[in-house]
Specification:
heterodimer; A: 236 residues; B: 266 residues; alpha+beta; 4 helices
């Protein structure tokens, strides 16, 4: 099977799946955000800044950010996922922290923690990126000072095509090389704060993919801004 | 302990009792009144069945996953059923990540008993080949927002998701989760759980998180459509008289009828 068009009917290789973003969906939380892209759905809640336990983890010079990535047991495309996390979810939680920290200034909150919990009712590739996008909305909703929003999307290559927002079927393409490159991008300062890649790709294709990712992130940013404006109204 | 249990607040309790004496709760409800209950099904695509239940600001999602496993040796002709509740730290500041604490375990076990003891699922029909292969039904309930009454919300979400469930395609060797059949679970009953709380000498249903800081005792009762009681659980720090228990069951039965109407048909 040659790869010459999107498997899910998208018209171009830089087209994102249908998206939906919301702010403030969990009343108990200090801030919350929702981001759905295709069949991947992320819910993020922020609690904090609050006292950090255990105490030995406290840092008197700054507050810390903790992300918690968790797929609901029924959210994957195969067997039930046993609850409780695994090595994969630990690593993703860590890279999510690193993607978000550059826009925060937690020095104002010594010894405190900002917890970001990201849950997935359903997934179809791109979950860490959807989670970062939702978490960014949640942090803004929580009123935590941010230098920029954080937008995230996976880019990559399937056979000889460079594309954005791979779905599961594209990630799993077997008749040619595939590369999956999740990125997070700060649209105002134009920096990349998450970059991972697995698969095979040449340097020119990689650069094309990153350029494509930075471009399509603007669409994600528009949705994030709209979600926040829908909740708070236009800034006065 | 990874769940900060809700502590009794004696001042708040006194204040609430004064209000209950007047027949009204802090949010303006009557004592025997639920908040708005909504049930949606088919809310997540990778589960074989799913539901979202909202009771006021309380929200849970339930997903049913099906698997093929070996049956337990003592029930070689029966399929397996497992109920799990995840009190997600996303849904309330008092929940932390980690293995389920006693609150989650109790919630899940009381939901499980309602389903199991009502005979909601004909587990014999889940048998593929005796002592070798049976269908397993995993019911996972995840909390999205906790504002009290997770028990009734969880039980309602579980039965709604079971009603929504379709078997995935199975060729005798492997399940193809991408292909769902039209075949539904063999359901024989629809248990509804209602928890009644005693505060002083008042009985209320559907408490908010704030009201949960005030209660003395609670009683969960599960009913089938013909009003058979199929599971019960008493909780709280104080005892109940026989008279109180009777009143609580009567109230629960009446409310179970109201909630059953939210479940809808097939």
């Amino acid at each position: 099977m040659t790869y010459d068009k999107r498997f899910d009917g998208r018209k171009s290789f830089d087209e994102l799946r249908p998206m939906e973003a919301k702010a403030g969906i969990i009343k108990s939380a200090d801030g919350s955000g929702y981001f759905k892209i295709g069949k991947t759905e992320a819910i993020a809640a922020v609690y904090g800044p609050r006292e950090l336990h255990p105490r030995f983890m406290q840092d008197p010079s700054t507050g810390i950010l903790r992300c918690h990535y968790n797929m609901m047991p029924f959210s994957g495309s195969g067997d039930r996922i046993r609850p409780g996390g695994n090595r994969r979810s630990k690593e993703i939680s860590m890279v999510m922290e690193k993607a978000l920290i550059p826009v925060l200034d937690l020095k104002e909150f010594p010894n405190a923690v900002v917890d970001v919990f990201v849950e997935y009712p359903q997934t179809d590739a791109g979950s860490r990126c959807a989670g970062i996008t939702a978490a960014s909305i949640a942090l803004a909703d929580a009123g935590i000072v941010m230098k920029d929003l954080v937008c995230a999307v996976a880019v990559g290559r399937v056979a000889d095509k460079v594309l954005a927002d791979l779905n599961y079927d594209e990630e799993a393409y077997e008749d040619g090389p595939v590369a999956d490159i999740p990125i997070a991008y700060l649209p105002n300062s134009k920096q990349i704060t998450l970059l991972q890649m697995d698969g095979q790709i040449t340097k020119p294709m990689l650069i094309d993919a990153l350029k494509m990712g930075m471009k399509v992130c603007d669409k994600i940013k528009e949705l994030q801004v709209k979600a926040l404006k829908d909740k708070y109204g236009e800034a006065q | 302990m990874n769940v900060e249990s809700i502590k009794m607040n004696p001042e708040l309790r006194q204040h609430l009792i004064k209000s209950l004496d007047q027949g009204v709760r802090f949010d303006g409800r009557k004592l025997e009144q639920y908040r708005q209950v909504t049930v949606e099904t088919g809310v997540t695509r990778n589960a074989e069945g799913s539901s979202r239940v909202k009771i006021g600001d309380t929200e849970v999602i339930c997903g049913v996953k099906m698997g093929v496993e070996k049956p337990y040796p003592d029930t070689p002709e029966n399929g397996n059923l497992a109920v799990n509740v995840e009190l997600l730290p996303l849904s309330n500041a008092r929940f932390e990540s980690g293995p389920p604490g006693i609150e989650a375990v109790e919630l899940a076990r009381v939901v499980d008993r309602g389903i199991r003891e009502s005979g909601a699922i004909d587990t014999k029909k889940l048998c593929i080949s005796t002592a070798e292969k049976v269908w397993s039904v995993f019911i996972d309930i995840c909390t999205i927002n906790d504002d009290g009454n997770l028990q009734d919300a969880s039980a309602l979400a579980a039965i709604a998701a079971l009603k929504d469930t379709r078997y995935p395609a199975y060729d005798g060797i492997e399940i193809n989760y991408k292909e769902r059949t039209d075949e539904r679970l063999p359901l024989k009953a629809e248990p509804i759980e209602v928890t009644v709380y005693r505060i002083g000498n008042h009985l209320i249903v559907d408490p908010t998180l704030q009201e949960l800081q005030c209660f003395d005792a609670r009683l969960t009762t599960a009913f089938t459509a013909d009003a058979t009681i199929c599971a019960m659980q008493k909780g709280g720090e104080e005892g109940l008289t026989l008279e109180e228990i009777e009143k609580m069951i009567d109230l629960a039965e009446e409310k179970a009828g109201e909630i059953r109407s939210k479940l809808g048909g097939d």
